[in-house]
Amino acid sequence: MMPDLSQVGPASEPVVAPVPEKLPAVVFDRVGKTYGRIHALSQINLAISGGVTGILGLNGAGKSTLFNLLMGRCKPTTGQVRLFGIDPWQDPTPYGRVGFVPESEKLHDWMSAFDFVTTFARLHGFTRDEAKMEAERVLDFVNLKDVMHTPIGRYSKGMRQRVKIAHALVNDPDLIVLDEPLTGCDPLARTTIMNVVRELGRMGRTVLVSSHILGEIERITEQIVLLHRGQVLALGNVHGIREQLDRIPHRIHIHCQEGKRLAKAVIDLEHVHGVMIPSEGIVDILTHDLGAVHQGLPPLLIEGGFKVTRIENPDDDLESVIGHLVGGGGR
Which residue range forms the structural domain that includes residue 58? Predict the structure, then answer.
């Protein structure tokens, strides 16, 4: 996996995980991509192997362009993309070791999941019997075996996403690329897909999964690449990146009928650096240690008899993290 470190600003050199006697599964070497005057990506340097890595970024950050370059859908304007040490524009054989799940949903609704995945297994060179066995194996892996003969058109969004993951696994790939696999899924489907992704990482596969939601990626992996405006803003361990933000107070947003009384009570809590009342019935707590304050809040609220309707962490989303890292202070 990527090393346990974090950095802010575009990476100057490729970051290579220590994988003995193996070339990194993915290398972006000073890669840039422009569309006319638009710089979609600029000087991307990455090397990733093993486990799950989250590709994070707001819409328009460059995640789709990064994956399109990786999958050979477009060619870099500058630099080089390598898969398992090979430039796929010179030799496409590495794509035989890659499974790709695109964000777009184009499935044949009249087919069963079993027939759909079997067809792709046949395209990978399996015999008819081998393809059926492989389809059953991967559909069982994504927890669809009991409904694999049901037409895809009757599937929920989460089930359809798992069919796409299953079809990407039929060639037993070493690299799996998942473009926004959780978009539009209900909570149960999200949890199921997250479990599948984590299991692939535990099996030693290299898994790249993109999202614009920080909380989703944090539930799957601690290793992230944070893109912003076509550049690598930060990379490495999620906790390491969050530690860089400790100098900036985080807000805990509390909706309470007795705002002034609550403000007086929480100001004495350890790790609380300030309290504000932005409007009637709302109290903002400023802290450098969200966990410690959240631990101390429940007994204080219960003992004080405060009627709280909602508690939020408005600075704990991706947009705010990016805002802090680029010096904008979040929202």
Answer: 6-243
Does the model's pTM come out above 0.85? Answer: no
Any idea what the CATH number is for the domain that residue 209 is in? 3.40.50.300
Does some domain include residue 104?
A: yes
Amino acid at 294: H
Question: How many domains, the chain?
Answer: 2
Model pLDDT, residue 288 = 75
Tens digit of pLDDT for each residue in 85-136?
Answer: 999 999 999 999 999 998 876 788 899 999 999 999 999 899 999 999 999 9
Work out the burial of residue 127: count CB atoms within 10 Å of its CB; fewer than 13 is exposed, 13-18 middle, 19 or more buried: exposed
Beta strands in the chain (DSSP E): 6-8, 26-35, 38-48, 51-56, 78-83, 98-101, 175-178, 206-211, 223-228, 231-237, 250-256, 272-279, 282-287, 308-312
Rounded CA gap, 231 and 229, in Å? 6
